What we know:
Layout: E1 2-5, H1 10-14, H2 21-33, E2 37-40, H3 43-51, H4 53-64, E3 68-70, H5 73-86, H6 95-104, E4 108-110, H7 117-120, E5 134-136, H8 162-169
Parallel strand pairs: 1-2, 1-4, 2-3, 4-5
Helix pairs in contact: 5-6
Amino acid sequence: MCIIVDTNTFSSVFDKTSLNHSEFAPVLEWVIEGEGKIVFGGTKYKAELKEAKKFLRFIGQLNRSRKVVQLEDSQIDAYQIILEAKETHKDFDDPHLVAISYISKCRLICSLDKRAYPFLSRKDFYPNNSPRPSIYSSKKNAVLLCRKYIAEICKPCTILNKAEIAILKK
């Protein structure tokens, strides 16, 4: 299964000292110890990622451990432009997340941006019966971390050995 981690949840997912890490710990555990992979791409997402300097090293480790799927920036950027032309509402400031989901067919987004929720799953943003994502926003959504949500782009699933898990859990 793949998951798009909105940069607004980086602390919650990756920082064990974060106040609400317990709500997002299942995401981290599922990526490190299970079949999960993080999906990202596009100019805007990568710019946001660069601003999250605290987590760049860890995401690099996940990438080296085959737990990250990077999409072609040009594909994400092109669809993002289409979305921005279609919807100009002031609360629609995460078109790159919709673009990542649509291009990758990733069916799960981890986010705390409630303003974005209606846009993230809007049917007309996912043409040709493309799957719309579910949203992981707390531990109550942990049931979403399962094989049902594995997109083709994330196959084969990568299960790490004990040594690799230990490195990521440091």
